[in-house]
């Protein structure tokens, strides 16, 4: 069996081939060697599996082209743009919220040129990066003050460290949530140096439970919006206004971890139970924390809004420097927040809001256009069918959005094989499988992406 393997050339002899030496010059010696080793390794594995060894012409232009192609493949960025055809608008695995064009432009300008990130242009002295978005956040939420860190988990950790380290935090058992990546709220509380005191039961917590637990060690009443799950049936919990009055009477702080965080009422678009940040602050909550890259539609960020004195403590806390927002995310967040004010229409200009508010008839029309573009392809069967899209990222998990999808079957291939080939396409396409067919949900597919899906399906057939 090993005899034919002796015919495999040494790497150095391949490097000495004139056409291969040009590849070394074009790229690098190490990259070319890696590509050659991979090719020889594949030939060896093929022989051991099949017992046959078919050698290419190692001096040919075709072989040199295959080596160059492997080098180019290895040079591809690991982080790449994909087409989200899953129907999940804020898909955590796919980068959550796509940014508005103005936010992307703001990031580019800030990346290319020096900026007044921490320079006060009026005084010429050192300024604060928080000033660039604080006024906008306060205007949109009604907060007295605001500060931004790099994500919502950091916002919770900073808030608790600055207000409750060494003291106790009271939270309902029904709100001790776990977020993505197995990060649990009790662990975050412990990391902050606070002591968790659980009250109530999983399904029912009363105001009296909080009141009975408050003592001289209590610093914070912590409420968490259960945006990524729902407890139904025999349930109850105190209203925010009740908790706010109790916190004020007892001289403790009421903090709410909102998670997603919306600035506008989404109920006209069929999404209920997602509280608006301004309403939470009106109810008397001292601090509210929410994400910038979920329903707000901006970059990754953790926004903290509320009481002026508490926000000042957060800004001066030593942890702030470790969790502060970077300049590119700050630029994108500022530009996104501006789209919430006149003359802009956030539902037209912020991609997340545009997708969740788009009329279902328009979604169906896009599905019909994809089917029409594939009408003459006899090797693929496609049809439009109703679908349910989702907001994603732990937001309103039990509420779907009416949508339409294109169901696809490619002759000679299973659905799993088709999705694998779509992921391997030059612009990876991520759909979902239902009942043995690949579905492209059009609520998350843009008009400009239809032609790419068509080309990718044609490449499967041509392979």
General description of the model:
- The protein has about 475 residues and is α/β, with parallel strands linked by helices.
- The chain has 3 domains: about 5-75; about 85-90 and about 355-460, Aspartate Aminotransferase, domain 1, CATH 3.90.1150.180; about 100-345, Type I PLP-dependent aspartate aminotransferase-like (Major domain) (Aspartate Aminotransferase, domain 2).
- Helix content is about 40%, strand content about 20%.
- The chain is built from 19 helices and 15 strands.
- The chain has helices at about 10-15, 20-25, 30-50, 60-75, 100-110, 130-140, 150-165, 185-190, 205-215, 240-250, 275-280, 310-315, 320-325, 325-340, 345-350, 350-355, 360-375, 415-425, 450-460; strands spanning about 85, 145-150, 170, 180, 185, 195-200, 220-225, 255-260, 285-290, 300-305, 380-390, 395-410, 430, 430-435, 435-440.
- A 7-stranded mixed sheet has the order 2-10-9-8-7-3-6, sandwiched between helices. A 4-stranded antiparallel sheet has the order 11-12-15-14.
- Helix 17 packs parallel to helix 19 (about 450-460).
- The longest helix is centred in the N-terminal third of the chain and has 22 residues, at about 30-50.
- About 40% of the residues are buried.
- The model has no long low-confidence stretch (mean pLDDT about 90).
- Its main location: cytoplasm.
- It is found in: Cytoplasm.
- One of its GO terms (biological process) is conversion of seryl-tRNAsec to selenocys-tRNAsec.
- InterPro entries: PyrdxlP-dep_Trfase, PyrdxlP-dep_Trfase_major, SelA-like, SelA_trans.
